[in-house]
């Protein structure tokens, strides 16, 4: 782990891409194949490979408690250290260096050239991560994390904390690691990239590159791939300009992106960040189990009643429940709208027999080898859709709506019809394009309704992260409660990272510093005088904020220096927008 941490530091220390790649390539080349995948997975900032459904899930409170215990520090020491750097890893590092200085343990500082006691290996650390994440009780999680930190030198501990908090930030995007893998093992970068897209697992790619077996990389069942993404388009004209006519316009369903993997009766659903959702949507898994094909589909989970799509707010009521009960399943029926096929088993015989008959007469297929599905990544969308249309689906697993308008005016009409069907808009695609996992290209363009914005009052601020760590750039904002008897008091609606310019943020930081009412840890309550315009994707009911609502993907668009707090938006305006979404 120590060597990995030193490599990560060297990568973080230089902004030169060529140097980062050279440092990494030399490191990867020298690694034992048994730990090569772990090193790569850590380098992209994840404790586990993408195919592992576990997420880090170690929160601030657990990290603070574990670090303070491992460092034998006073309560509150972690918050103080954090306030200096706005970086959880750095805060852990500082406290652990102090611990070692007190112990007179020079070897664990950053001093070079001294022999180091051999600390935990990468495999030990990953096993410890698993034990931490698997712990049911928060106190066990803290015990395990602090005992891991106890065994690590401060630099390694810093990176362990960064990995667990999901904030590695060493200036290393996936693409750079792919370049380093190509360099380390002397393989073409294009082959490494292709393998990375096809497997979704950078650790496996490194192993394949090392063994000169990149050509074997392909999607596998139950190893989810990052979904292909769409770029925003301003209007119909722009789409016609980019993609030409006839257009390929699919309804944009407002739900949650999900990849459906199926082999016989083994069915799993994965979210766009590769977490397993099967338990949350048992009726979809059950419906898929009945179908006579194997493969990987891409689509959207929606609230759906008798093939009618219901608003996202309905689905919202189900989210967060790991295993919904019968009442929830009945109150919010779900459906899966399939719009793409990523891999399918060859020789699937779509059956004409009614589902019920087949269920009785056909035993479920024997499990086939994992690679019996054929990847369709390089197959044009038009052909993938034809394969999808040939599959037997069901009342709960349906095909996305597709139209072929011939002009911008027709596209506008199709957009209006999609909206009338209760959908969010359209995703217009290039029928000749392949499926590129994790990439946001121009082959998929999304057209949504104009965004709503709200004018809100800033009531609290915090220091930001990354390059914004010295400035107060995270704003908590509120609207006026205009209900009778509430006197226009400000009720919080959300928190957003500032989308203001650096100069504006610097100026606002000075203002907020001078107008801080109270400091609560990292948070500053400020005089409610600044109005900002906040854009968002969606509004929903929530108990998280005092207003009783929350915004999805809020972002600060601009300062409304022309407005004073009494002119900010009201709770009834928020409620009206939410009702529209309902
Ligand atoms: P957005 O979340 O606004 O960036 O829009 C992209 C998302 O739209 C995708 O990640 C999908 O979850 C969703 N979506 C809904 N319908 C489609 C469709 N027909 N094709 C692609 N994405 C879709």
Question: What does the secondary structure layout of this molecule look like, with pairings?
Answer:
Layout: H1 2-13, H2 17-29, H3 36-43, H4 60-70, H5 77-85, H6 88-103, H7 122-134, H8 138-151, H9 154-164, H10 174-185, H11 189-199, H12 202-210, E1 229-232, H13 236-243, E2 248-252, E3 256-263, E4 266-270, H14 282-289, E5 295-305, E6 308-309, H15 312-316, H16 326-331, E7 334-345, H17 355-361, E8 373-375, H18 381-389, E9 397-399, E10 402-403, H19 408-420, E11 425-429, E12 440-448, E13 453-463, E14 472-480, E15 490-497, H20 502-514, E16 516-520, E17 523-526, E18 531-535, E19 538-541, E20 549-552, E21 555-559, H21 571-581
Parallel strand pairs: 1-12, 7-9
Antiparallel strand pairs: 2-10, 2-11, 3-4, 3-5, 5-6, 5-7, 7-8, 11-12, 13-14, 13-17, 13-18, 14-15, 16-17, 18-21, 19-20
List its salient traits.
582 residues, DNA ligase i, domain 1, D-amino Acid Aminotransferase, Chain A, domain 1, OB fold (Dihydrolipoamide Acetyltransferase, E2P), 3 domains, seven-stranded mixed sheet, 21 helices, 38% helix, binds adenosine monophosphate
